Amino acid sequence: MSQTASDTTHGLGPIGVWSMELRFGDPGEAREAVAELDELGYGAVWMPGGLGGDMLGDMGRLLDAAPRIAVASGILNIWKHETADVGAWWKSRSAADHARLMLGLGVSHGPTIGEAYKKPLAVMNAYLDGLDAAGVPATRRCLAALGPKMLDLSRERSAGAHPYLITPKHTAEARERLGAGVLLAPEQGVVLETDPAKAREAARQALSTYLRLPNYLNSWRRRGFSEDDISGPSDRLIDALFAWGDVDAIVKRVREHQAAGADHVCLQVVGGGRGMGFPRAAWRELAAALLK
Q: Which DSSP symbol is given to 209?
């Protein structure tokens, strides 16, 4: 059953933007872009943090650049940020900022972390203990949950879940697992390109760096994708993970997530003939269709 967005978005609104560019692009244009996204009516911007670095500082800079839009991490890599540092940063921000922040937390992947990588569920539990002790409230954090056990933990110890590289079917299953009243904020890859070959090639390029990461591979296997689908990757997998086509096709996929139980859908625009850099024209087109 679809959830009512106002009940569970935790200030994120129904539609957000997930953007590599806002984290790694030109800082001046990032500030301009987030201010425009705020004016367009998007509820939140999400930035990647798997590589570590000054993630918290980057989030703070976006907060300072726009008056209303929420800023979320998608994700804060728990191997690369000590809970005491996160807590100190949290306390340095105002109460008004706290209401606009969502710390998406992730356990990353074995190939990324190396030999130090341990049982992800236990490590995440311990990290959440540290955040509790540091004064970061559960209502302002969510987990990058793909499998059932991490979804359970996201329900029990955070605002909810922020799944990445998933399908509307996963959204439906996650909603059933989470139950009502728990945030479910899936990322959705978007290619604004109507030529099938070009659209799928752009999606394949975007997917290529994730094809060696076991957490995603296992998630797709649980959804019924074969080894051939994954190794290709096949058109079937690409079409399931990415929404491509005209704006109406993108809107249709967003509505599928919402009907399956998503409270907030964050759109990541990739490739599709829109050029390199900040896809601001695409963000405007999508805002006109989704934020009327």
A: G
